[in-house]
Amino acid sequence: MKFLDHLEEWIIATLMGAATFIIFVAVVHRYLSGLPLGWLQDELIQINTSWAQEVCIYMFVWMAKFGAAYGVRTGIHVGVDVVINRLSTPWRNKFIIFGLLAGATFTGIVGTLGASFVWEIGHTEQTSADLEVPMWIVYLAVPLGSYLMSFRFLQVMVHFIRTGDLPKHDHSHVEGLDDELQGAKA
Amino acid sequence: MNALIIFALLLVLMLTGMPISISLGLTVLTFLFTMTQVPIESVALKLFTGIEKFEIMAIPFFILAGNFLTHGGVARRMINFATSCVGHWHGGLALAGVMACALFAAVSGSSPATVVAIGSIILPAMVKQGYPRKFGAGVITTSGALGILIPPSIVMVMYSVTTNTSVGALFMAGVVPGLMLAFLLGLTTWVLAKKHNYPRMKKATWGERLAAFRKSAWGLLLILIVMGGIYSGMFTPTEAAAMAAVYAFVIAVFVYKDLKIKQVGKVLLDSASMSAMLLYIITNAVLFSFLMTSENIPQQMAAWLTDQGLGPIAFLLVVNVLLLIAGNFMEPSSIVLIMAPILFPVAVALGINPIHFGILIVVNMEVGMCHPPVGLNLYVASGITKMGISELTVAVMPWLLTMLGFLMLVTYVPAISLWLPNLVYGSVG
Amino acid sequence: FAQAPIVIKFSHVVALDTPKGQAAERFKQLAEKATNGRVKVEVYPNSQLYKDKEELEALQLGAVQMLAPSLAKFGPLGVKEFEVFDLPYIFPSKTALYNVTEGPIGKGLLKKLESKGITGLAYWDNGFKIMSANKPLRSPTDFRGLKMRIQSSKVLDAQMRMMGANPQVLAFSEVYQALQTGVVDGTENPPSNMYTQKMHEVQKYGTLSNHGYLGYAVIVNKKFWDGLPSDIRTALEGAMREATTYEKAIAQRDNDMALEAMKKSGKTQFIALTPQQQAEWKKALAPVQKQMESRIGADLINAINKESAK
Ligand code: NA
Ligand code: NA
Question: Would you indicate the residue range of the signal peptide (chain A) (predicted)?
Fold first, then answer.
């Protein structure tokens, strides 16, 4: 389980960083190859970076699918909890469990839809426009991410029933800011 | 009839407290399985292609850039610079807070992030100087909302994507209203501070100001990269966001050295998960509006609204009321993604400029973020100040009223939004 | 008793007032009339239902029945032969183009779609393309280092590189602003697209090069089509023929009017190539055909060249 957690975190952080780096390189390349640099310009023009946008999009779609699963584990998905927060604890708990079950159901259904979709596309020869990778590989993000998300919902639900704790994302927490504040006080 | 069922179901599901994205998705599925001919496979297709657009990718990039900058160093230097400029007036530090929020808003695309970045540093300092806690909390909660009005802005990217308007023009259109609102919030602060005789600071010399400016220049330069880069044709808006992220990384790690290289992974992870949450909402909202379109619902609603014979003035009032109500329950991205596809066609039919309409929506979203029951800025501020939501609600009141007044101004004076983009791009919209 | 009509959902990604949009409406009227209302055609313009990248998959899934995607979209589907339409200077004239599309070569190409569950019904025009930029493009050397916007296509990428330009893939919706701010220096478009997207406002020069062609194929879901009663199919084919003639006529008229209007606006200066310059362009771009042979198929390229030489 720890391994899965780390893999998930590692995948989405890497996708985020890599996509940023790729677009950065593509922009710098476009800028440089517009400059009159003689032979260097010819070399630069020959380098093909037109796939950068496509790669970036696909990386972010994958990041979104797996990141959404990670978000369930860390409680980042926002809901309208003003009403249920006014209910008595037993009732509130029932709604919370209902919500988590609904999440698991929805993502489970979507995962299955995605899987059959990938299966169908897998029997065609569709490729992406720029990189020409088979589309079924690209679309694999939908079933994989959704099943993982469904699993995470169930995991959170079991944990909630056992302990009464929900993962809660603290929007006011920022990495490194505590050090900064301590530094300011010192 | 179908429209009524769809919206009722969505509302009920949302009120159970489940994530908004899940309630959108479940509404779509229920509808698909029971009431329409749309093949279920197109859902899987839309789940992937809903966010398959390079313009949308500006959102993760801006979030990443913002997270690199939120690490204190940039915000602290901006606060120092702002203090050296306005600290000697009534309520000096509070005014500096407004100005620092406006400066930070110009490098960050999100409001809560602006509240966190500036608030975490300035609020403790204000309390130490003898300001009442609720005064500080009120100033920063509302000024932080500038984050989505002063470009760059994640909410503007969402609006642009849903309505096919130009992000560049929207960004440009946010500048004047953003500065104006910053001024009005500052004015409110000044008036209150003068009345209660809150502390002023020693006037900084021009030398001190210059020094403070120089120290904050690295952060301020980002404004130039984003707006200058887009306007001068160096980058498209999405590329500008990516460049901003790289630049912010360099500043945080190598120039200001606030961030250790081993913390970068965590920043990437946090940004990825925040982006994924927004992209997941977008995905499901796209699904939702696809379903509505297949059932001709936006067209019918638009026709109905048009049939009411509302002129532009009455229509805009209705829009404001609707959005303010929505702001009670939902956060901005969901509101924009659900409401814009319905309201936008009517606005266009009534001859309202799409860019002006976008700014109006953004200002509405700003108001919504600062009032309960759902208001992200309030939650964040309550996290920083450890004040309760109801206490904070009272605290933000004076500034919130200013914002409402400003909303009316922006609604009925399109020139505030359109003057600058028209100047820069010729006619927009 | 009255039978429920057969519904054809016809989805496309352009505005109603474009040749494709108008022809789709015309087909709707003709088809509904020819079948006495037994067929109902619902047209969804402007990517209302499906976007550019989704519509082919939606058609294969049966979510829509009819589309008119641009010919470049069939490459990613696995029918790379269609990329032949992107090759520079492969059609020296409209007659040559129609000889190919209306003749056995065009029919053969549509046949290739059947293995993908698609039946091809007709070719529709957009038109021949103008090269535009903020500097005059008279000789191939004028392209050196320019950032030229293209649609995602290996052939167009090769074409721009062959001219010494730096091709940039950008979404259609981004082009205007990218040209205005200078993210890209130029692009290529048929006159009507250039005009409706107001690109003439942000391009100083246009070269009437007619170097390439942009067209569409009207396609239907094969399973749906084969399942129609044969009399209905015949009636629809008739309606499509008429709509196609209509489309080609207004495509031509639109391009002529657009070019006239852009010339009148004075914002773009249009350059006609001398025969000698034209020859230079052709010579510079000739290697693209060779380069793309392995993708598209040498036989097909040769067959079209032979047809064009007639
Ligand atoms: Na901002
Ligand atoms: Na609110």
Answer: none
User: How do residues C70-97 score in pLDDT, each as one tens digit?
Assistant: 998 999 898 999 999 999 999 999 999 9
Q: What is the pLDDT of residue A184?
A: 46
Residue among C61, C78, C145 whose CB faces A33 most closely: C145
Q: Which residues of B touch A181 (CB under 8 A)?
A: 72, 120-121, 124
Residue B245 makes CB contacts below 8 A (sequence gap 6+) with: A20, B61, B62, B64, B65, B68
Domain count, chain A: 1
Residue A87 inside a domain? The answer is: yes
When CB atoms are compared, the residue of A64, A83, A109 closest to B279 is A64
Percentage above 70 pLDDT, chain C: 99
Which stretch of B287-291, C110-114, C215-219 has the lowest confidence by average pLDDT?
B287-291
Q: How far apart are CA B374 and CA B377, in angstroms?
A: 9
* Residues C64 and C272 sit within 8 Å (Cβ to Cβ): no
Chain B contact probe: residue of A33, A172, A178 with most B CBs at under 10 A: A172
Chain-centroid distance of CA B398 in Å reads 20
Task: Answer yes or no: is pLDDT of A32 > 80.
Answer: yes
Tell me what the pLDDT averaged over chain C comes to. 92
CA-to-CA distance for A95 and A103, rounded, in angstroms? Answer: 12
Rounded to two decimals, the pTM is: 0.88
- Tokens standing for residue A126: 């569709």
Tell me the residue ranges of DSSP E strands in B217-375. Answer: none
Closest CA to A172 of B386, C88, B156: B386
Q: Chain A residue closest to B261 (CA)?
A: A176
Q: Where are the domains of chain B?
A: 27-36+52-425
CB contact at 8 A, C239 and C119: no
A172 pLDDT higher than 80: no
Q: Is the confidence at residue A178, as pLDDT, over 70?
A: no
Structural domain of residue A39, as residue ranges? 2-169
**H-helix segments, B89-132:** 92-105, 111-129
On whether residue A184 sits in a domain, the answer given is no
Instruction: Tell whether A17 is within 8 A of chain B (Cβ).
Output: yes
For residue C14, the model assigns a pLDDT of: 82
| Contact across the interface for C167 and A50, Cβ inside 8 Å | yes
A129 closest CB neighbour out of C60, C76, C165: C76
Collect all residues of chain A within an 8 Å Cβ-Cβ radius of residue C164: 42, 45
The count of C-alpha atoms lying within 13 angstroms of the C-alpha of B401, restricted to the half-sphere facing its C-beta, is: 7
* C-alpha span between A181 and B14 (Å, rounded): 38
Task: Examine residue A185 and state whether it is found in any structural domain, yes or no.
Answer: no
Q: Is residue A178, in this structure, part of any structural domain at all?
A: no
What is the mean pLDDT for each group of 10 consecutive residues in chain B (429 residues)? 83 88 89 78 80 86 89 82 89 92 90 86 86 91 93 92 87 96 96 90 89 90 88 88 94 89 92 90 83 77 81 91 81 83 88 95 91 75 79 90 96 95 77
Is residue B121 within 8 Å of B76, Cβ to Cβ?
yes
Could you tell me the CA-to-CA distances from C61 to A118, A120, C45, C54, C296 in Å, in that order?
Answer: 12, 9, 19, 11, 27
C249 falls in which pLDDT band (50, 70, 90)?
very high
CB contact residues (below 8 A), chain C span 50-89, against chain B:
50-51, 53-54, 57-58, 61-63
β-strand pairing of C130-133 with C213-221:
unpaired
Q: Quick one: which of B71, B72, B95 has its CA closest to B83?
A: B95
Cα–Cα distance, B257 to B250 (Å, whole number): 9
CA of B108 to the centre of ligand 2 (A): 21
Rounded to whole angstroms, the Cα distance separating A89 from C87 reads 69
Place of tokens 């946008």: A53
Judging contacts by C-beta atoms under 8 Å, the chain A residues touching residue C161 are: 45-46
C175 touches chain B (CB under 8 A): no
Mean pLDDT of C243-264: 96
